[in-house]
Amino acid sequence: MSTSMQNAPETHPRVDATISKDNMYFLEHVVFQVENSLFKVPRHHFSEHSAVFATTFTLPPGNDKPVEGCNENYPFKLQGVKKADFQALLKVLYPLQIPFSYDSISFDEWVSILGLATMWEFSVFRKLAIKEMAAKGMDPVSKVMLGQRYGIPDWFRSGCYSLVTRAVALTVGEAEKIGLVTAIRLYQIRDGSVNGRRQLYDYASYIEKVLKEELKVCHLDEDAQTQPAALL
């Protein structure tokens, strides 16, 4: 063997046996494929804060198959997820700006975050999305739509109350957004108040009675919901 080869540095030097991996900040990464893009991020929040991923990551790989997400050649494919929605979630999971402010996240991005946090059971980030969206202010139609879609009954009740007590009736466009059945039931509540004594009409009780089927959809656990909001 030549002297030059003997003196050549090792390509992969051995790790000093006295050096240990830090318990908190030696993070594993995972590679996701969303639509036609790859994302490489720490696994930490996915494995620690998502009940869905915490279970998924513990499943053994198939025979002689690499673990999904281990590298760019074997990404963890998120089927049916939009790239823009995933990017919005990563903004709160792994913010790149220092200092970071939630004010930089738009309302539409919070909707994306709420949707994925609900689907993947990120309870902490679901609560955060609910809090931030409520702070930004929401119109009644959005409260009805999002409250029913993502299981937030307080939003649904509050939105319905606003729609049946305001001076202007539902528009065709609003009815299309919240769904024909819900819109008809809200018209029934408004019609009852007109035919009865409006000042004494118990809107809240009729919302519970007439919209009981819609409220059944809002079934997620109480811890993930907002605090009961005043309807007035």
TrEMBL record:
<dbReference type="Pfam" id="PF00651">
    <property type="entry name" value="BTB"/>
</dbReference>
<dbReference type="InterPro" id="IPR011333">
    <property type="entry name" value="SKP1/BTB/POZ_sf"/>
</dbReference>
<feature type="domain" description="BTB">
    <location>
        <begin position="30"/>
        <end position="124"/>
    </location>
</feature>
<dbReference type="InterPro" id="IPR000210">
    <property type="entry name" value="BTB/POZ_dom"/>
</dbReference>
<protein>
    <recommendedName>
        <fullName>BTB domain-containing protein</fullName>
    </recommendedName>
</protein>
